[in-house]
Amino acid sequence: MENEQVLRWLLEPDNPSARYLTLRTLLGRSDQEDDVLAARAAIPRTPPARAILQAQYPAGYWIKPDRGYSPRYKATIWQLIFMADLGAE
Fold first, then answer.
1. Residue 20 CB: number of other CB atoms within 10 A?
2. Would the CA dihedral through 61, 64, 65, 66 be positive or negative?
3. Domain extents for the chain?
4. What is the pLDDT of residue 67?
5. Which of 1, 12, 18, 29 is within CB 3.0–4.6 Å of 5 for a Cys-Cys bond?
6. Which residues of the chain carry a pLDDT beneath 70?
7. How many angstroms separate the CA atoms of 5 and 19, rounded?
């Protein structure tokens, strides 16, 4: 694929995480620009972020309220890391 084709693919609206991170990281766009704001706002409404947020307990934790790190990849800290990697606020 040519660079332009890859860039178009990364900017497709059906993957707001890829779109947001491409706009910010590869294109150096400001967080205040409308298309950057729109991409970031869409992240929690689309997979996989939506599934992560749906698994959160109303009190704001995942798995157990007193254990933020364990079990690995399932507990609260891991969910927050995943969300940050997706570009969510």
1. 25
2. negative
3. 1-46, 47-89
4. 72
5. 1
6. 1
7. 14
CA 56 to chain centre: 15
Residue 31 makes CB contacts below 8 A (sequence gap 6+) with 24, 37, 40
**pTM summary value:** 0.89
CA–CA dist 51, 64 (Å, integer): 18
Match 């706009």 to its residue by tokens.
23
Paired tokens of 52: 């992560």
Using the 8-state DSSP alphabet, how is residue 19 labeled?
H
Torsion, CA 58, CA 41, CA 46, CA 75, rounded to 10: -40
